[in-house]
DNA sequence: CCCCCCCC
């Protein structure tokens, strides 16, 4: 049984080709009937064209919960689970869990518009609905995110085996993961080149639970643009999301999640576990940066300490896939005037040097660790040093890092020795001041603020330490299990609807203007 | 009637 080093997830394991499933772990959102747990057959594409002929059957309900009080006979309504391939007459009631953007396609046989949705019924079973030209014209503006509809008599098709899963055998070992937590960081969306020459949007976010365990989550494709932008636009709020049908992989010792083409993101949905997290989140006085820092400090607590001298002299004193930290004094910031841009992916890094005789260690800080050191985002830093570095408080802070002691968190997989053996490069995952409050100071006002922050932090750390691993309470399972009669209540998400509406008005450029070349910074 | 599961 595979386990994940995290908190709130559901883990399904398909036992055999018939698709029976077992579920372990997790104490939050349970989608017992998620079709992905039952093999590929239920990954049906539901064609809706024929629904046009019986539009009177399509009643638009204002929200999911009203399904229960529907006055019309519900006898003919069947669950998505019981839909048969090629079934001619049927009605389902389903909620729009995800709306794609309307796309055009063009191939040898055909061309036109296509619009996809992911629907779920009150058992939690999901199905993909596909609409084409005429259907899009009729239904555009009718289907709305998180609203429920009666849908009838479209074409029910078996999914194309070719597309359902490229490696069917992998389905036996690759479980899908559902996760919920709050979003602690949101990266930029950018275009990456695939090995086959194609392009793909990618956006990395970080999700955390209330024990401040963090997990990187990669949003792919359309989701990186749409839902990702939605998250970014609301990044000032403490956002809680449920993300379903994720792939889990381990990259360089770090467990990470990626969306699949079956993934959905629900924003602040109404379910008991989310409400609990929300309550906790809003009662904690942390801001985004403090949360990041606390998460790092928690990891450092658990990591093994290692002497940097040992790392330099012995090429392999460390174990694979293990978190370590070392304590050291920064000798120099190699690129303090202009943090370096990494050409392959659009991010900046800071190189710190530690010199020990002839030996040199270089620690590279990307993203959050870098932000944590200088107290602002890398882009803000660059803008501030570009103007006048000597008046920049961030620059002064950077310079004052020198001769300070820090703890650096790193994964053993991110350490490389140079050919001569005298230089060591470490990509750090986190940074913490070695003792007390010796993060570089800017001025008195900040000292005062830091003191206040430190008090708050102490309070939070105590609260985190006091948290017991939450057992699965029967009560919780019943309340959140879609198998029970109670439907999942989803908050009517006006924001997201407005967002989708806006999306339609924005004409997308085919090739978004993303920086692909190395950025040249003016010398300051 | 589309789409080919990804990148460091």
TrEMBL record:
<keyword id="KW-0862">Zinc</keyword>
<keyword id="KW-0479">Metal-binding</keyword>
<feature type="domain" description="Replication protein A 70 kDa DNA-binding subunit B/D first OB fold">
    <location>
        <begin position="80"/>
        <end position="162"/>
    </location>
</feature>
<dbReference type="Pfam" id="PF16900">
    <property type="entry name" value="REPA_OB_2"/>
</dbReference>
<keyword id="KW-0863">Zinc-finger</keyword>
<dbReference type="Pfam" id="PF02721">
    <property type="entry name" value="DUF223"/>
</dbReference>
<dbReference type="GO" id="GO:0003677">
    <property type="term" value="F:DNA binding"/>
</dbReference>
<dbReference type="InterPro" id="IPR031657">
    <property type="entry name" value="REPA_OB_2"/>
</dbReference>
<dbReference type="InterPro" id="IPR012340">
    <property type="entry name" value="NA-bd_OB-fold"/>
</dbReference>
<dbReference type="GO" id="GO:0008270">
    <property type="term" value="F:zinc ion binding"/>
</dbReference>
<feature type="domain" description="Replication protein A OB">
    <location>
        <begin position="176"/>
        <end position="267"/>
    </location>
</feature>
<protein>
    <submittedName>
        <fullName>Uncharacterized protein</fullName>
    </submittedName>
</protein>
<dbReference type="InterPro" id="IPR003871">
    <property type="entry name" value="RFA1B/D_OB_1st"/>
</dbReference>
<keyword id="KW-0238">DNA-binding</keyword>
<comment type="similarity">
    <text>Belongs to the replication factor A protein 1 family.</text>
</comment>
